[in-house]
Amino acid sequence: DAGVTQTPRHEVAEKGQTIILKCEPVSGHNDLFWYRQTKIQGLELLSYFRSKSLMEDGGAFKDRFKAEMLNSSFSTLKIQPTEPKDSAVYLCASRRGLGSAETLYFGSGTRLTVL
Amino acid sequence: GEQVEQRPPHLSVREGDSAVIICTYTDPNSYYFFWYKQEPGAGLQLLMKVFSSTEINEGQGFTVLLNKKDKQLSLNLTAAHPGDSAVYFCAVRTIDRGSALGRLHFGAGTQLIVIP
After folding, report:
1. Do the Cβ atoms of B43 and A43 come within 8 Å?
2. How would you write B22-53 as a 3-class SS string?
3. Strand pairing partners for B75?
4. Vertex A25, ends B99 and A91: CA angle to 5°?
5. pLDDT of residue B94
């Protein structure tokens, strides 16, 4: 089975641009998460979907960050407009969603640099 | 809400030595605990998951100890080798409730370097 696939691996954007990051969860997984990872803040939850429904969004990220699940096998994270402080690694993760002790599977991430 | 603190943020040991990473949590309803390993340029990979019913959990080359009384979780690498060099994260999950359904609370991570 394929793991979580994230594209692109690297993204460079100018301040003010719109960027879209993509994620394909593990086939059959119902839960999907977007995290932002920085050295200072560690892992911060951006969004959590269960069966395509948005269950949680990271309150501090609402204004410029929008995650969507267009179908059960594809999700996007849009940042609009980008700011230099958005430079980070964005991780997508998924799990089956049938039990509390399930493993979360992570993609390799997208490293975003905003100039 | 749940607060997870992880220490140390950086750890350097010589090959063959042991390494200990500790996480403390606050929510007494925490029931599931995870350790993840992240190698450079990669996502997080599960190392071990433990449940509150088990205090000592052994893996290949490491042991996870859970002290519910002190709300502490530790990862002990015995005889570390250079391949163990990575960032390690603990994660804690409470029993599913309402809008907090399914959320994991991560520690800040520990950068482990094993010197040959």
Report:
1. no
2. EEEECCCCEEEEEEEEECCCCCEEEEEEEECC
3. B21, B64
4. 75
5. 78
Q: Which of B113, B83, B107 is nearest to B35 (CA)?
A: B107
Which residue on chain B is closest to A90 by alpha carbon? B43
Residue carrying structure tokens 């991560």: B106
Chain-centre distance for alpha carbon B54: 15
Taking residue A72's Cβ as centre, other Cβ atoms within 10 Å add up to: 15
Q: Is A103 helix (H, G, I), strand (E, B) or coil?
A: coil
Question: Cβ–Cβ contacts within 10 Å for residue B106, how many?
Answer: 21
Per-residue model confidence as pLDDT tens digits over A21-47: 999 999 999 999 999 999 888 899 999
Q: What is the pLDDT of residues B89-110, one digit of tens each?
A: 999 987 765 555 567 889 999 9
Chain B: closest CA distance from residue A87 (Å):
15
